[in-house]
Specification:
464 residues; homodimer; three-stranded mixed sheet; transmembrane helix (chains A, B); Mg_transptr_MgtE_intracell_dom (chains A, B); 6 strands; transport (chains A, B); transmembrane (chains A, B); CBS domain (chains A, B); mainly alpha; MgtE N-terminal fold; CBS-domain
């Protein structure tokens, strides 16, 4: 019953060509685990895509994971390890028999191995590196010398390249004689000059559909881009999305090709960056749904502590006006409204700004216009809600003075919300701080402090 | 100077292989427009990628756009239209001379034309459809019969297919004799049975690197998936990301291939879905940085109005305790802290839940465990901050009673925040409402109401 409620459309989705884990399936798996029925378990798990298998491991509890891997570990596809959430990798690797682990790792592409070992330490890292062939190990160790989150970490080192003077026939013959050296998937043949510098690339569809005598040089894509090996992976993902790239050569300082990044890796990075943004905006550190209570608590605590500090700051503002409140208790009833409206308006403005900064839609070209616009929007919404709240004030408390106070405070705070919502992300960005991370706290601090101060301050001036 | 502040690293990024519009560049463009110097303008704009050209048009003001297109419209690349933000398309199309528009549209792939005309109406739509060749027009009109946001709208109709019994040599010969019928980019040859049903697909890299005599059937990818033509585009993007797909055949109800979706289109959809989530979580409707003041105001107003209603609701709770506040004004000072901490904790929990629902990491398999975890996290953080606030209460007001009240209220509200933060998104999802859209309002309403009620209610019980 609970499963009915919480996995709507599970059956639709399976029909639609991709498989979503649902309650009944997971229950069958766990029953097979409990019955120690290795055969039934294999029957259930064999058809799973490695990504779904990783999801399954993430969704069950630690002791269930251990029991499942005890029964099934020997058959685990190596690709599951690179699909698995980082927080669980160490645990799962620890649970696998060493020979299974070696076998699994040898099947992976170099970029996946890098992804796997970069978060491991000591014994586990050594064990995995030793499982690789000498050439793969050298490749992985080389990749690990590039900075974290750089193109160098993201790229695969298997490169399909051809001298710039080759013809289609030569390229096809070369590919046919060396099929084992090719990466699993490739989309371009990179043309290089004698010094191995990338000079262009040809889509392999173009090679397939051209005559053997055609020069590769004549088939190159018009819009040719390369990525420096130390570029941030977020910038790489942005470029893929902006320019509809499929695969891009990665070059070193001398413009020599050292690897290739493909769009599927860029898509994963984009997804991770989005997740980071959305969680940071909510003041949540890197969190996984699979985290345990203690990890989750620890990750959320810092921002709650910051919030407590800012809430106390706002209370200190209120404390300055205790006398006023003691005389007009209605102020205590209404004051949260002004702060709340400011907080909301500020959050709207800052979210649009954070997103626009991330997509490079907010630049030097339009920043002044956008700041003016946010101020105008804040002012207009402020006036609209000032009129509304003025009316509420009169109807509720029958006091025109209170209506004046709340209306004026509303206009002031909404204007401040708009300005803080755009200026704080801009300043944080300029200071090199991710605006998604800290804008929310700063903006709501401004709107709380300004909201309480304007409302209670005006009340002290006008009502006493 | 202002530009220096707001376009940090602009020069780095250009060096890094992709071009970011910055203040000085945009200023040069606008100067050329003002001087009506068409030659200089062309010199500046010619090297721009269509996506960057679209960004430029989005970042300048309406009258500047009109003047720029007046001078440069004749040379505009058709691809700019499909890169352009929907809100500006109509305006830009209106500014282009009809013959330029026809020329531009004829260069586009069928999926881009669909993307372009689906938001247009009347005269403009007719004009664009009439500019197409009869066959292209039929293709576009057919695509428009599929529901909005479906795979049918997203797919391109140019399909590269081969009979399942063909060999590599036959496929290459076929492709070489029909190069003009091929799409710009393609990554697989789809194998079809005599009834045109997809039975598998072969990566073209595999075709290139295999001998002419090899059977295509023996080269097919192990993990073969198709997408039903009416599947939601968000589900399609999810499948591409989860299973690292590059291109997927789209099939009708009889499993016949009707089109192909490629990963670059899926990446655009994923980006749009993320944007929608992030903006909806902040209570911002579909907004663009290029929107005018009046549109922005109108789009933000509804959620501010909802927030006003919930803020008034919270005030009504406070109003029940006016007498208590009149006697102990310290309560007015402290009460926003309880509400604010609950709101923050609730927002953390709901953001994690909304994200986990979007990535299908929260399913029937683990929902009970996650609900229990959120309750536990809420309780633990509640106790931690109860102790802290109890200490603050004693130090600040020297009153052990106030310390008890705020501590107890803090535990209650943080626990409620955790529960509301997970249960409200789940219930909204079950009800078919996007949890990103409405969770925030509901959760903060709960934490405000519970926070004020618990704090003031306990104060009424214990302090009077």
């Amino acid at each position: 019953m609970a499963d009915d409620i919480l996995t709507p459309e599970a059956s639709d989705e399976r029909e639609a060509g991709h498989y979503t884990l649902d309650g009944p399936f997971t229950r069958s798996v766990l029953e097979a685990v409990e019955a120690e029925d290795a055969e039934r378990l294999a029957e259930l798990l064999e058809p799973l895509h490695p990504a779904d298998m990783a999801d399954l491991l993430e969704q069950i509890e630690g002791w269930q994971r251990a029991a499942l891997l005890h029964l099934y570990g020997g058959r685990l596809d190596g690709a599951v390890l690179s699909e698995l959430d980082e927080s669980l990798r160490e645990e799962v690797i620890h649970l696998l028999p060493p020979d299974v682990l070696s076998e699994a790792v040898r099947e992976l592409d170099s970029d996946d191995v890098v992804d796997l070992v970069e978060d491991l330490e000591g014994e586990q890292k050594t064990m995995i590196l030793e499982a690789l062939s000498a050439s793969s190990r050298a490749a992985v160790e080389q990749a690990l010398t590039y900075p974290e989150f750089s193109a160098g970490r993201l790229m695969q080192r298997e490169i399909v390249r051809a001298p710039e003077h080759w013809r289609v026939g030569e390229a096809i013959d070369f590919l046919r004689t060396n099929p084992d050296s090719l990466p699993d998937q490739f989309y371009h043949v990179i043309l290089v000059d004698p010094r191995m510098r990338a000079v262009g690339q040809v889509a392999i569809g173009k090679i397939l559909s051209s005559r053997r005598g055609a020069l590769l040089r004549d088939l190159t894509e018009e819009d040719f881009r390369t990525v420096p090996v130390d570029q941030d992976e977020g910038e790489v993902a942005y470029a893929f999305n902006q320019y509809h790239l499929i695969s891009v050569p990665v070059v070193d300082e001398e413009k020599r090709v050292v690897g290739v990044i493909t769009i599927d890796d860029a898509m994963v990075v984009m997804d991770e960056e989005h997740e980071e943004d959305i969680l940071r905006l909510a003041g949540v550190g890197e969190t996984r749904i699979s985290d345990r209570v203690v990890d989750t608590t620890r990750r959320r605590l810092p921002w709650l502590a910051v919030n407590l500090a800012t809430a106390i700051l706002a209370s200190l503002v209120i404390a300055q006006f205790e006398e006023v409140i003691a005389q007009v208790v209605a102020l205590a009833v209404l004051m949260p409204i002004v702060a709340s409206m400011g907080g909301n308006a500020g959050t709207q403005a800052l979210t649009v700004a954070v997103r626009a900064l991330a997509t490079k839609d907010l630049t030097g070209s339009n920043v002044l216009r956008i700041v003016r616009r946010e101020a105008a929007v804040g002012l207009i919404n402020g006036v609209i809600f000032a009129v509304l709240m003025g009316a509420v004030g009169i109807l509720w408390f029958g006091d025109i003075g209170i209506a004046y106070v709340i209306s004026a405070a509303m206009v002031i705070n909404m204007l401040m919300a708009g300005l803080a919502g755009i200026l704080i992300p801009l300043l944080l960005d300029k200071a090199g701080v991710d605006p998604a991370l800290a804008s929310g706290t700063f903006v709501t601090t401004v709107t709380d402090v300004v909201g309480f101060f304007a409302f209670l301050g005006l009340a002290a001036l006008w009502l006493l």
